[in-house]
From TrEMBL:
Pfam families: DUF6363, Patatin. The keyword Lipid metabolism applies. Gene3D superfamilies: Cytosolic phospholipase A2 catalytic domain. Coiled coil: none annotated. The lineage of its organism: Bacteria, Bacillati, Bacillota, Clostridia, Lachnospirales. Residues 30-196 form the PNPLA domain. This is Patatin family protein.
């Protein structure tokens, strides 16, 4: 049985720390799946976590999970739902026009510079001060392997977030950290096992699909043409569904053992991957908030080792 106690970090939030029977420090982790606009479900949950003063030793996010997780680490409750709703119909945010003009469905300058630096300020200083380790998962197209990149300076490493969220086919390759990268979901959609391997033993996992979901095989015809220079990446895409479904199996087993705490929607979220309706964004965000509030007591008991 572990001994867990609440302590406060420099921001006044409650970080769950403790030791196991051998006296080893237990490190808590938060694992955030992607899923495009389904990520508004995650955003709703994270805002409740901030309301409740919860923080973790480490956060790892994939694609939309990395985007929402970054505002969680900087402590900016309400920021993501605010700017998503305000700009979702702005063609600079996401549009086929961007794709045709630039090769990216999301305009790089607008989304990763104008927005966080001028229109809805991202608190880079708060992120850099945070004691929470933050990782974004990207896919290395040359090796076909996932890259788990530790972001220590958000402004200098913003291209890592961009790479993690750069969907294949509708985004250009992002060259950063000495690699050619795309969406992390192509190689490790739910990086729980990697986080455990990295020493985060007590993890909360936020999924954007309901229990029972299984990923179908990729259609590879376009991939073989678009990424013909990167055969390892095409091979990775061919096994994407197998890795994803195996991870879900591992999650179910660990959840039954009480080793992880999982939050996910009860039924499929009625929102498109590239949804442009502010009302639907709000609805999915509200579902996330509702689920987090309903499960908060159980979550706190689990974190404190009372399950």
């Amino acid at each position: 049985m572990s001994n867990i106690n609440n302590t406060s970090n420099i921001n006044g939030t409650n970080k769950i720390n403790g030791t196991d029977n051998a006296g080893n420090t237990i490190r808590t982790g938060l694992v955030l799946e992607g899923g495009g606009m389904r990520g508004m479900y995650t955003d709703g949950i994270l805002d409740v976590f901030m309301d409740q003063g919860l923080s973790f030793d480490g956060v790892i996010g994939v694609s939309a999970g990395a985007i929402h997780g970054s505002s969680f680490v900087s402590g900016q409750k309400g920021r993501n739902i605010r700017y998503y709703k305000k700009y979702i119909r702005d063609n600079r945010f996401i549009s086929m026009r961007n794709l045709i003009k630039t090769g990216d469905i999301a305009e790089v300058k607008f989304c990763y510079h104008d927005l966080p630096e001028q229109l809805d300020l991202y608190d880079y200083d708060a992120f850099n001060r945070s004691k929470t380790e933050f990782y974004a998962v990207c896919s290395n197209v040359e090796t076909g392997e996932p890259e788990y990149i530790h972001i220590t300076d958000m402004k200098k490493q913003m291209d890592v977030i961009r790479a993690s969220a750069s969907l294949p086919y509708v985004s250009r390759l992002v060259e950063t950290e000495g690699m050619k990268l795309l969406d992390g979901g192509c190689t490790d959609s739910i990086p729980l096992m990697k986080f455990r391997e990295m020493g985060f033993a007590k993890n909360v996992v936020i999924l954007t699909r309901p229990k029972g979901y299984q990923k179908e095989p990729e259609q590879l015809a376009m991939a073989k043409i678009r990424y013909r220079k990167y055969p390892a990446f095409v091979e990775a895409l061919s096994h994407r569904h197998e890795r994803y479904n195996e991870t879900l199996k591992q999650i179910d087993e660990l959840e039954k053992k009480g080793e992880i705490f999982v939050m996910r929607p009860d039924k499929p979220l009625e929102i498109g991957r590239l949804e442009r309706s502010p009302e639907k964004l709000q609805q999915v965000y509200d579902i996330g908030r509702r689920d987090a509030l309903m499960k908060m007591r159980d979550l706190k008991h689990w974190l404190e080792g009372k399950h």
